[in-house]
């Protein structure tokens, strides 16, 4: 993520430059500086911004915002934009003398706590971390999820898990919080969802986007596959301009990837065979072969057909290393 830093005094701007020089590692594009105070030095004129516009622009960029100045300025400025801890960016405050670095928003999922430690280490400041799991030296499930690109099925369950972690006593199993890793819909337990489910799709030319979308979504829901686990939509090269497939990928916000018949024919896993498809496209199977071509290790849903549409669903083994302090809670 990029870092946007705003300051309001000459001393604050000098600290901003120090932070940039300490963290950018020669890439000045990683960190942008802005000045929201009264311009008394012509050298600062090119950095001048309107605070409200700077916050509005930066808040929705997905990058971290750092205020070098009073915490009250930061709180009042970001208040209209704070929405959801899953999407709000990291926001930090640093006093202009560089004594304290304080994350005030999105400490875990947005990475503000980790960034605070990094900045503090770079400038010799004290990171002021206030989240309960951190001050009690407990693992934070949302930090683990964020670092590994895992979705959280229910933020209330995540909050309950964190509360149980604080109250947990090793010898009382009834109090032990639990979570699972799954690509399937779970409603009764905290579930971390890896993005590793691969869709392979074939469809007759001219199929409507709505018909294909309904077909795919009905089957995903029937087999309780969580949409947040989806990684890509895949097919054969001859379908790369098929409007229904492009529309489906856009609807699911997934990349659409196609493979040549030659690439699909190199797949060695057992798949179903169609003489008609082989004669038409040069490969005997589109949906299952494209799933494996995209990196799936196994099929969780073999070929399903309906009205000139085919669907196969595969899963790629997620390469996850569970921290030792969380393993005891994984089921």
From TrEMBL:
Tagged with keyword S-adenosyl-L-methionine: no
E.C. numbers: 3.7.1.12
Boundaries of every CobE/GbiG C-terminal domain copy: 197-313
Domain of life of the native organism: Bacteria
GO molecular function, one term: cobalt-precorrin-5A acetaldehyde-lyase activity
GO biological process: cobalamin biosynthetic process
Family matches, as SUPFAM superfamilies: CbiG N-terminal domain-like, CobE/GbiG C-terminal domain-like
Key words of the record: Hydrolase
One family name in Pfam for this protein: CbiG_N
Domain Cobalamin synthesis G N-terminal stretches: 54-134
Transferase among keywords: no
Name of this chain's protein: Cobalt-precorrin 5A hydrolase
Protein source organism: Treponema ruminis
Lineage: Bacteria, Pseudomonadati, Spirochaetota, Spirochaetia, Spirochaetales
């Amino acid at each position: 993520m990029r870092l946007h830093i705003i300051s309001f005094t000459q001393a604050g701007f000098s600290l901003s430059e120090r932070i940039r020089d300490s963290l950018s590692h020669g890439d000045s594009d990683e960190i942008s500086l802005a000045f929201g105070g009264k311009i008394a030095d012509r050298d600062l004129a090119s950095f001048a911004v309107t605070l409200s516009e700077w916050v509005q622009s930066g808040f929705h960029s997905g990058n971290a915002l750092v205020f070098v100045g009073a915490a009250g300025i930061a709180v009042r400025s970001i208040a209209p934009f704070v929405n959801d801890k899953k999407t709000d960016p990291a926001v930090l405050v640093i006093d202009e003398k560089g004594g304290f670095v304080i994350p005030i928003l999105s400490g875990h999922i947005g990475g503000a706590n980790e960034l605070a430690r990094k900045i503090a280490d770079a400038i010799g400041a004290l990171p002021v971390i206030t989240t309960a799991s951190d001050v009690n030296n407990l693992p934070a499930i949302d930090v683990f999820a964020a670092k590994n690109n895992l979705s959280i099925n229910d933020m209330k369950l995540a909050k309950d898990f964190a509360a149980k972690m604080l109250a947990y006593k090793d010898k009382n199993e009834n109090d032990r919080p639990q979570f699972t890793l799954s690509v399937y819909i779970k409603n009764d337990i905290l579930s971390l969802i890896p993005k590793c489910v691969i869709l392979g799709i074939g469809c007759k030319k001219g199929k409507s986007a709505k018909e294909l979308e309904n077909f795919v979504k009905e089957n995903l829901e029937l087999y309780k596959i969580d949409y947040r686990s989806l990684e890509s939509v895949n097919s054969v090269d001859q379908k790369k301009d098929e409007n229904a497939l492009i529309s489906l990928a856009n609807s699911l916000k997934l990349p659409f990837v196609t493979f040549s018949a030659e690439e699909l024919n190199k797949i060695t896993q057992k798949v179903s065979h169609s003489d008609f498809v082989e004669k038409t496209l040069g490969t005997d199977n589109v949906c299952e072969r494209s799933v494996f071509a995209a990196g799936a290790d196994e099929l969780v849903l073999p070929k399903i057909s309906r009205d000139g549409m085919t669907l196969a669903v595969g899963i790629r083994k997620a390469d996850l290393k569970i921290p030792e302090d969380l393993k005891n809670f994984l089921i």
